[in-house]
Amino acid sequence: MKKGLILPLLLVTLSGCAINSAFINYPSQLAPVKAELNSNTPLEGLDSLTSKISGNDGLLYAQEAGRVAQIGGDFKASKAFYQQAVSDYIDFDDKATISLSDTGATASSLLINDNVIPYRGPGYERIMLHQYQALNYIFSQDYEGALVEVRRSNELQSTEQARYEESNKSVQAMDNGTINTEMSKLSQAAGSTTSAFLNAYSYYTTGVLHEVLGEPNDAFIDYRKAAQISPNNRYLQQDLVRLAKQLAMPQYDEFKRRWGEAVFPTKNQGQVIFLIERGFVPAKQSFTVPFPISGKWQSISLATYPSRDPLVRPARIQGVGPLLQAAPIAEISALAITALKEDLPAALARQVARVYAKSLLAKNTSDWGSVAIQIFNLITEQADRRSWLTLPQQAQIARKYINPGQYNIQLDNSSPTQINVESGRTTLIWAIDTGNYTRFYSTII
């Protein structure tokens, strides 16, 4: 029995900083933080996140802390947390060889679970990290800093796709009925989203910044990219018609025929642009797949997502004249589902290796030792359910030209907030709806 248990127990001890995620699923750890975000004390959960930034999951906790600070309106603190996450991603990129600590974590994962592997977020999280850092700079009136971040976000949409395609070449999915069924369910849940690396919300944010800072050609390029991903968004369509006419683009006649005449502000009008985020991205669930090896049953746990997200309705904006209805531009939940589907073959390969390693350990022990190892397996076999859980479920946009002045705006049944509109300038309004609370941040550019 000692022979069968010493190594697993030693590895648990060596895993140290990752033990929480190894035995307590990540969504349950984040539940109190999300509850605070949906209250009038959104920053109360920060301390529980910052105390874990130095651990194996530090990158993930830094992303969560940055988002919590951002939702709570502390853009300075959010920038610092996001910069820590950016640095962690760069460290992952710069590692030409596997370090001793990584080797230990990987070895531990063979007998414990994937949660002991240091967290490196999927590509869509990294892209949104730079987009949200850009928003921190925008609402701090640092537009040059914002441009650096949005350009980095755009670059990552290409490089992360290439990284995935290269790494996926060597991974073969195992033919298993349970796995095949789950892959099919994930495909249905993701809907029309076919890539986790193409985010219309990020491209639109980049386009808006380019346009309001006097770079209409760059804005036109980013709006086109966004429209290719979200082709039915009427605000994007109107942006393309307007800029095509303004820039005398050859596509103008086609755009006009498809989407109508371009609309421009009158001489004294300003414009309001709404970025609206609703809900939270869903948390991963788990499912179990049994495997018989050498006459003994073992099981593995893999992550999955619910088959269907709660319905998100387009926001109804009051206070800027006739009722204005927002239009969805990105389903962040669909990006998360697609990312998991793309990673599932590699996760399955790791899990099968783990089952095999445990079976060998059980085979070389006494009957009691074998039973003990199977019990240990049941306790430690946890799906990797880590992901950036404070991201929104969906992003929506709206845009309108209005006369200068003060306006009391309201999103659905939220409390009203006052904004200012100036002639010839843009009022950017960022509304974050967490369920019970909607927080508004606005800046004039």
Automatic annotation (TrEMBL):
Alphabetically ordered keywords of this record: Signal, TPR repeat
Signal peptide residue numbers: 1-18
Protein name per Swiss-Prot or TrEMBL: Tetratricopeptide repeat protein
PROSITE patterns: PROKAR_LIPOPROTEIN (PS51257), TPR (PS50005)
UniProt KW Signal keyword: yes
The keyword Signal is annotated on this UniProt entry: yes
InterPro entries: TPR-like_helical_dom_sf, TPR_rpt
TM helices/strands, residue ranges: none
TPR repeat ranges, renumbered to this chain: 200-233
Superkingdom of origin organism: Bacteria
